[in-house]
Amino acid sequence: MCCDLKRRFLLLYATQKGQAKAIAEEICVQAGAHGFEADMHCISEMDKYNLEGEKDPVVIVISTTGTGDPPDTARKFVKKIQDKNLPPDHFAHLQYGLLGLGDSEYTFFCNGGKTVDRRLQELGAQHFYDTGLADDCVGLELVVDPWIDGLWLALKKVFLLQKEKEGMSNDVSAVSSALSAAACVGHELNLSSEIQNLKLEDEGDASSDVSSQKPVDINLLASARDTEPSLVHSVPPISQAALNIPVLPPEYIEVQFQDTHGENPHPSILISEGTTFKVPVTKAVQLTREDAIKTALLLELDIANTAFDYQPGDAFCVVCPNSVSEVEELLHVLGLSERGECFVCVKVKEGTKKKGASHPQHIPERSTLKFILTWCLEIRAIPKKAFLRALVEYTSNAGEKRRLQELCSRQGNSDYTRFIRESNVCLLDLLRAFPSCKPSLNLLIEHLPKLQARFYSVSSSNLYQPGKLSFVFNVVEFPACPTRPVSRKGVCTGWLAELVAPLLHPNKNTLHTKEGSPPTEEISIFARPNNTFHLPSDPSVPFVMVGPGTGIAPFIGFLQHRQKLREEHTDWHFGETWLFFGCRHHDRDYLFKQLRCFLENGTLTHLKVCFSRDSSTAEGALPKYVQDVLRLYAKEVARVLLKDSGYFYVCGDKKHMADGVSGAVVDILSKEMEVDKLEAMKMLAMLRETKRYLQDVWS
């Protein structure tokens, strides 16, 4: 390194599911190798840093959640910097670089990062490095890796300029030489030379110095017919390449086994997002026929004896466990089947080299091993490259070790995307595919993220059904594939379906209570209010709802609420309501045929339904998708949006529906306003900005 003392920079991260934190930790690890010291903090820990007095460069890694909101950990920070009383030069002293994480499947891509970036600029802060926006839709690493590579040169320039300004030029020739060297490569925005040439010397372990190793010819270990790459097999050029792999993350967790005496904490103590309520499931209905492609369930919860409150359009979260069978299999693979009920004490390893190492907040200090694997860790998480790098050290077979190195290397980006990320491979899939990999328990706790509660849209109205909350979901199915030899269900939807089976099939081998009814199951929930996806505050304003499949869920709550308001306020004027619903088959998955009741009592003015897989006597004559039906009513939709200043709501699948709907709306606006598509897109953007075109979508 070109300087004796390591140069400090402040590293802040704001994370919802752990990705921003993992990237910040990678920056922190790499910083030392480049002669820097990262002072890393969660952005919520505002007592540990002070931007108003910060003299060193600041690096921010921030994700986006919900409909373009900053993550929960950044809410207080964002509220603080959005204070309108702050002067425009409040952060004039601040130099920063920002890396935003998002998903272009959603409308407000990287909006959490963009919001912070824009506000810091408004308050006078200066970029020392261009903002990076990483897209989880195509792979965060495509932007994250080169952004981190370029960060080190940008930081060097900042410190060299600082040194000049402070008059610390006791070695002018050395500084000039460094500036010249920096200028030579200044045009290379994605600096990678230092990290690519970094020799990995992890405590003298030659196996970690992959860059200088000759590649293992794993083709000799594979069948001669394996000419196509797979999760476990590579082909040239990567199979013959020298690899650049991440720095081995230092281990920092120590796990001590204790006896089997004691009591596990309740899973609700692991929730930091809000107050948790344990509520009974009072009703379960299968909305689809047995031969439908997807199984849709409606569950009703009794919230009467709680302080839980909601509005139609809100979402809430369900606290769910991992699959019992998957936990048992993981214990078996780890060789810990006999110790699942043993209590373990988790603490930070003494003398760890990990900077700022702390006890994970989502891991109890004392609980059973099975509790940790069931309620605390996302064992279905797609392994990050840092995890793959750590697993290399626990793999004994040379061919398997080499393949894991390839998958976490720079050269293996496309293989990682194809065989890990896009295939939704999880830890168990990896351990099945690489049987000589036997990771330690502490490694799992270090690298597996927190098990997240799952979000669901409310499908009811507290005004219409006081003390009740309903929601609708498809039971998610992941079929077996080459990278995953067994099929599996969604973590939460599979658990819920199994939990309510006695309610769905009360006479099928279930134990009943004395009264003869199935036992009541309880689940833990907490609120996740939606600040925008609500009915218009003025009931006279018309609105359009588009919700195919389970996307209809919040609109059932809208219509229930509207019906009750009409009953209670007969003197009010109510605007017209449109609902566009679609499903595959009329007789298999038309989820709410009682929509006709809302139509008959006047709550719903117009109901338009389409069926994508049903044939008709005039094959092809009927529209198959909601976006096609929208185009048939172009004049009416345009009138609601333009003349009547109405609202437009979309709920459901992002990739296969919501984009098509927004495209249809652009076409409608272009046609009815007699403008080109660019002007129509501007109008749609204005509708979004004024919160009159609202989406509740998922990918």
Automatic annotation (TrEMBL):
Keywords: Amino-acid biosynthesis, Cytoplasm, FAD, Flavoprotein, FMN, Methionine biosynthesis, NADP, Oxidoreductase, Phosphoprotein, S-adenosyl-L-methionine. Pfam families: FAD_binding_1, Flavodoxin_1, NAD_binding_1. It catalyses: 2 cob(II)alamin + A + 2 H2O + 2 H(+) = 2 aquacob(III)alamin + AH2. InterPro entries: CysJ-like_FAD-binding, FAD-bd_FR_type, Flavdoxin-like, Flavodoxin/NO_synth, Flavoprot_Pyr_Nucl_cyt_Rdtase, Flavoprotein-like_sf, FNR_nucleotide-bd, NADPH_Cyt_P450_Rdtase_alpha. PROSITE patterns: FAD_FR (PS51384), FLAVODOXIN_LIKE (PS50902). It is found in: Cytoplasm. Residues 9-152 form the Flavodoxin-like domain. Its cofactor is FAD; FMN. It comes from the Eukaryota. Signal peptide: none annotated. One of its GO terms (cellular component) is cytosol. SUPFAM superfamilies: Ferredoxin reductase-like, C-terminal NADP-linked domain, Flavoproteins, Riboflavin synthase domain-like. Its main location: cytoplasm. Residues 274-536 form the FAD-binding FR-type domain. The keyword Cytoplasm applies. Its EC number is 1.16.1.8. GO terms for biological process: cobalamin metabolic process; folic acid metabolic process; homocysteine metabolic process; methionine biosynthetic process. One of its GO terms (molecular function) is FMN binding. Forms a multiprotein complex with MMACHC, MMADHC and MTR. This is Methionine synthase reductase. It comes from Asarcornis scutulata. The gene is Mtrr.
